[in-house]
Amino acid sequence: MKSTAFKKSAWCSSGLLALALACSPTFAQDEPLPEDPTPESSWSTGNQKVTEKIDSDFAELGDGDHEELIKTLRTGSSITVEEEIEQVVVDDAGNPVLNDDGTERTELVIVETTLDTEGNALGFGEISLALGLAEAISEAGISDRELLLLLSNDDATGILDLRADGRGWGEIFREYDLKVGDVMRNVKSNRPDAEKAARIERKEKSQRPERTEKIARLDKPEKPEKPERAEKPEKPEKPERPEKPEKPEKPERPEKPEKPEKPERANR
């Protein structure tokens, strides 16, 4: 049997400035920690709405009710979780005590785990980042006690321990090989209101009547048809060229008369 109860501690300081910060859809990765925590007396209706919104975003994380934790983180105070757990009974030497059948004897004990922010109040955006990262790195079905240990622990390796050490949110996410954008998109896609809106939209689409034909736009005056081009007259056929008369054959040249033989010279 397991029972978990939140035990809220007193606020760390009183008479502080009222909250004037609204939750933004986008969060700066390296925004500084707010200096002034918000006292319980100044917790406005607006703050409560934002708190409930963040709580609904992480309904599957831990035991599902995180309003007191969100207020603690926002105001820089502390919170204690009591959880009944089953543990092995040990003797003075630290050895497990055995039953008659040889099995280890167990007992139910109440374990208290306290998260003390030491006055380091977070903005609502930072709270969403811290819870989003805790959800991404945790196994399903963790308890609120285990959630607090993910946020802060004695080894100073928790998410808020790294933040208090001055690291930016992007750097903290990279410690776990994760990216801020990927984790927060996954958180938004799992929100109950997002699923509800998607179901309503699908239902409305299924009930929509078929689209009627679009009303025809006012017809523009038709452009006058271009007059058909007059057919070009067919080119007259070129007259056949007359055949050239055959050149008359050249008359044969008369044969040259043979030269007369030269008379022989007389002997001197």
Could you please describe the fold and organization of this structure?
This protein has about 270 residues and is α+β, with helices and mostly antiparallel strands. The protein has one domain. Helix content is about 30%, strand content about 10%. The protein has helices spanning about 45-55, 65-75, 125-135, 145-150, 160-165, 170-175, 180-190, 190-205; strands at about 5-10, 80-90, 105-115. Strands 1-2-3 form a 3-stranded antiparallel sheet. Helix 3 crosses helix 7. The model is unreliable at about 1-35 and about 195-200 (pLDDT under 50).
Provide a compact summary of the structure:
The protein has 268 residues and is an alpha+beta fold. The protein is 31% helix and 10% strand. The protein is built from eight helices and three strands, in the order βααββαααααα.
